[in-house]
Design a protein that fits this description.
Layout: E1 3-4, E2 18-26, E3 29-32, E4 34-35, E5 49-53, E6 56-60, E7 70-72, E8 84-89, H1 91-115, E9 118-124, E10 129-134, H2 143-154, E11 160-166, H3 167-172, E12 191-197, E13 201-204, E14 221-226, E15 231-236
Helix pairs in contact: 1-2
Length: 237
């Protein structure tokens, strides 16, 4: 059983250097017995960095999800199962993605409050974030208006909290958002991670988040594009 420590580390900024044992080497990647690395998922890129053992060193490419998190390496052949390695996550990459991901929580929550819009997709890239929204009436959307509202929240100093709740608690909470995916999580997993941005958002999420919303810079909307009936794709930095 792999210990996925990114789920218990909060805030998700400045991840620590950590030691772990290589349990398996599969293709160009290694499995570790414990990891702080966030695997790609939910629109958030996976961590990257490096792994070393004595004088052996390899860059670690974007970490991949699965029942066990896979750590792809440039030079997997220099390691052996059983090596106790040091893993260093690229903090600047993680911190940027953590801030952008938390900002997406705010944007989605504000869009829902203002326009009853539902977030149906999102992706963080190296340059910006895009959110796909479905609206009952997309003609109501105003880019300047929502930018002002989102940036007001980002300057509010709201705390970001992490909880562990049961499915019943999640589904019965009247303020809970974004629960449609719960049926894709095995029923054997009884307790789920819930992210709360005080007075702004409450939803299940396995991503990484800042501790206080004021740690995120203001957003600027770059583009708004039609994606079919009732849908808009909003891109911002």
């Amino acid at each position: 059983m792999q210990e996925k420590m990114h789920l218990t580390q909060h805030p998700g900024l400045n991840p620590p250097v950590f030691e772990a044992k290589i349990t398996d080497i599969i293709g160009d990647g290694v499995f570790l017995d414990r990891t702080f690395c966030y695997p790609r998922g939910g629109g958030q890129p996976g961590d990257r960095g490096s792994i070393s053992f004595g004088d052996k060193f390899s860059n670690m490419r974007e970490v991949k999800p699965g029942e066990r998190i896979l750590h792809p390496l440039d030079s997997p052949e220099i390691f052996r199962a059983g090596d106790r390695v040091q893993c260093k996550i690229d903090s600047s990459w993680r911190n940027r993605n953590t801030m952008m991901h938390t900002a997406q929580h705010v944007f989605s929550a504000i869009a829902n409050d203002m326009y009853k819009a539902e977030t149906v997709g999102n992706q963080i890239s190296a340059h910006n974030t895009r959110i796909d929204l479905w609206f009952p009436d997309r003609d109501l959307f105003d880019a300047e208006e929502i930018s002002l509202q989102v940036n007001d929240v980002l300057n509010s100093g709201a705390e970001v909290l992490i909880h562990e709740w049961s499915r019943d608690e999640i589904l019965s909470h009247h303020k809970m958002r974004h629960t449609n995916f719960l049926d894709r999580i095995p029923s054997s997993i009884s307790m789920l991670r819930v992210v709360e941005i005080e007075d702004i958002d409450l939803c299940p999420c396995g991503g990484t988040h800042v501790g206080n919303i004021s740690q995120i810079p203001n957003i600027t909307i770059e583009n708004v594009k039609s994606k079919g009936a009732g849908k808009l794709r909003v891109t911002y930095t």
